[in-house]
Write a structure and sequence with these properties.
Number of helices: 17
Bound molecules: 1-O-alpha-D-glucopyranosyl-D-fructose, calcium ion
Distance between the termini: 32 Å
């Protein structure tokens, strides 16, 4: 059985990974084709974002049938082959479960709209208040979170798109339906589940206006959420020791995340939290352009490492996913120090206490595509923002610059495999445009170059397997007042790791915290071939990352 503390998980956005039949849309056969590439990289699990039957309004996060695979992605036979072929390579499959809401195309919702009480009670439906929406809550994709149902003069709640209706977890029958779905996929050999915005499913008993926000404080980490997750664990994945779970926790707290992921609580294995990816939100607004706040980033990373450790919780470690811009463009330098900054950012995450996640293309340094026309965008959240910002009178250039910085489409362009047409992603017309830099940034070029970002990720993954201190070591923050350096330590038995990372393109000096004489020391990994050996004061070059292993 795999130990998730020593494992690395690779996230695949099937629609943009590899197209096997030339329709311009990535599919499951394309994933099967690339298993040997992933084996060589060394990852242990593949997290697949949703590929179930869906009208694709939110690219699959609007599920119309949880038991069937959308024909665009393939067949159940393809999926079973993927599990089988993956297991031969010791790679397990993690599925993405969207249980905060369904598509309004789901039969449950259709029957609810047809007036069947049983199914109306599967959703959050409320009476009008003062002839209007039940509350002033906002959808995360813009606009009101309530949609009017004229047939019954009521409203249904949708925290995301209007075609994503929120489910009523208070309804035990509905929860039972959800447990059956998970047991079905466990029966298919699935060994992991990523639970989409799972900390939003516990809604309050009464719906009150939010006089100081968009309503999220009423349903985020809501009432009974821990009881729901304990029941979920007990009824399904908790029965299988070799099935792991990760909860996507939107706008959550450390206290709740310790309870979500501490083994003694028997809820989930680990959690995704996003606070470290909001340090470039001007005034907390995602739709803004600003350089990331380095000090705030360090403070947040240290806090979540130390507090989760104290509480015996477990972090999912990540910079990138299908909702976030590419990290080398965001916190690195994707022009002058593309290779060095990508490797430095990888070192920061992979040497920490938690389970690392790599998002497709991150391992070869894929960047934001810098789309300059709205027509190139496909993401519903980005297109909604464009329309709302235009109505607010913002000029197109300004809006496009914000989208270039923050749009989710930044991470959804096709995987760049080689220099052939469409970077080898498809022989057809890709559903979304490629980043124009694919002739230089692609898997083929990385595999040819021993100094590439790919081999650096491969080395990081192998180190976590070879050195217990990386998986089990105590995290020790170091003085976080350096202008450019983020450094921390790991301690385990008679060993220490000193991890030093320069987040900027200028040289700087670093005072090492430990007296060396009592230790044998070596460099475990560095993104400079000739990193300085350990000494009291070290010169750290632009975007330099170096990990010292110290042993008594
Ligand atoms: O994302 C949840 C979520 O909070 C994101 O919407 C995120 O905050 C936002 O995109 C960042 O701007 C999950 C899925 O990852 C996302 O793809 C879905 O759109 C969303 O849930 C609804 O299912
Ligand atoms: Ca296809």
């Amino acid at each position: 059985m795999k130990d998730f503390k020593k494992s690395v998980i690779y996230q695949i956005y099937p629609k943009s990974f590899k197209d096997s039949n030339g329709d311009g849309i990535g599919d499951l056969k394309g994933v099967i084709e690339k298993l040997p590439y992933l084996k060589q990289l060394g990852i242990d699990y593949i997290w697949l974002t949703p590929f179930y039957v869906s009208p694709q309004k939110d690219n699959g996060y609007d599920v119309a049938d949880y038991y069937r695979i959308d024909e665009k992605f393939g067949t159940m036979a393809d999926f079973e082959e993927l599990v089988r072929e993956g297991r031969k390579l010791d790679i397990e499959i993690m599925l993405d479960m969207v249980f905060n809401h369904t598509s309004t195309e789901h039969s449950w919702f259709k029957r609810a709209m047809a007036g069947e009480e049983k199914y109306k009670n599967y959703y959050i439906i409320a009476e009008p208040k003062n002839g209007g929406e039940p509350t002033n809550w906002l959808s995360k994709f813009g606009g009101s979170a309530w949609e009017y149902i004229k047939e019954c003069n009521e409203y249904y709640l949708h925290l995301f798109d209007v075609t994503q209706a929120d489910l009523n977890w208070k309804n035990k029958e509905l929860r039972q339906e959800i447990f059956e779905i998970v047991k079905f996929w466990i029966g298919k050999g699935v060994k992991g589940f990523r639970l989409d915005v799972i900390n939003l499913v516990a809604k309050p008993d009464d719906y009150k206006n939010d006089d100081r926000g968009d309503g999220r404080r009423f349903y985020t980490d809501g009432p009974n959420i821990h009881d729901y997750l304990k029941e979920f664990n007990r009824e399904t994945f908790g029965k299988q020791a070799d099935v792991i779970t990760v909860g996507e926790m939107s706008s959550t707290s450390i206290e709740n995340c310790i309870r979500y992921s501490a083994p003694q609580e028997q809820e989930l294995s680990m959690v995704f939290s996003f606070h470290h990816l909001k340090v470039d939100y001007k005034g907390g607004d995602k739709w803004s352009v600003m350089d990331f706040d380095f000090k705030q980033l360090i403070q947040i990373l240290n806090l979540w490492q130390v507090e989760m450790q104290e509480g015996n919780g477990w972090n999912a470690l990540f910079w990138c996913n299908h909702d976030q811009p590419r990290i080398v463009s965001r916190f690195g330098d994707d022009e002058k120090y593309h290779n060095k900054s990508a490797k430095m950012l990888a070192t920061v995450m992979h040497m920490m206490r938690g389970t690392p996640y790599i998002y497709q293309g991150e391992e070869v340094g894929m960047t934001n595509p810098y789309f300059d026309k709205i027509e190139l965008h496909r993401d519903i959240e980005s297109i909604n923002y464009y329309e709302i910002a235009k109505q607010q009178g913002q000029n197109k250039q300004q809006i496009m610059r914000v989208l270039q910085s923050k749009s989710r489409d930044n991470s959804r362009t096709p995987m760049q495999w080689d220099t052939s047409a469409n970077a080898g992603f498809t022989t057809g017309t890709p559903w979304i445009s490629l980043s124009e830099n694919y002739p230089n940034i692609n898997v083929e070029a990385n595999l040819r170059d021993r100094n590439s970002i790919y081999y650096y990720y491969q080395q990081l993954i192998q180190l976590r397997k070879d050195y217990d201190i990386i998986a089990y070591g105590k995290y020790k923050p170091l003085v976080a007042d350096h202008e450019k350096i983020f450094a921390y330590m790991r301690e385990y038995k008679n060993q220490k790791l000193l991890v030093i990372n320069n987040f900027y393109g200028q040289e700087t000096k670093f005072q090492c915290p430990i007296d060396i004489d009592e230790y044998n020391h070596k460099i475990l990994i560095s993104n400079y071939a000739d990193s300085a050996s350990y000494s009291k004061e070290i010169v750290i070059r632009p975007y330099e990352a170096v990990v010292y292993h110290l042993e008594k």
